[in-house]
């Protein structure tokens, strides 16, 4: 992990069912991709092998102009599209003494910058502001909890 100066991890907490993104999931993926495209350049996008994570990663990579061959992977900023267990492990590695601060929500942005060779910190946790642009926050996570 020492190659990365920061990792942005996003979560899909639907478990291990290998299903494609539904319409809500595609809207969420487009929203997070738009937000990430507005921020600093992305060197690489990685994902789990489950369909919905791969589809989200492809949407992000396309919107952020990340080359498929990894030619821009200078070890700066990478996106990891993964599931709750991995995000929890990142949190535990970055802050071993801290409790996990709440539920990990779909397409939440969690930023773990490197602080030295082997140390991560937590810069951002559970940020889902990008979902307000698609009207999703009015009904989810306390409403009818639709997810993608």
UniProtKB/TrEMBL annotation:
InterPro entries: His_Pase_superF_clade-1, His_PPase_superfam, PGM_Phosphatase. Substrate binds at residue 52. Pfam families: His_Phos_1. Gene3D superfamilies: Phosphoglycerate mutase-like. It comes from the Eukaryota. PANTHER family: BROAD-SPECIFICITY PHOSPHATASE YOR283W-RELATED, PHOSPHOGLYCERATE MUTASE-LIKE PROTEIN 4. Belongs to the phosphoglycerate mutase family. This is Phosphoglycerate mutase, putative. It comes from Ricinus communis.
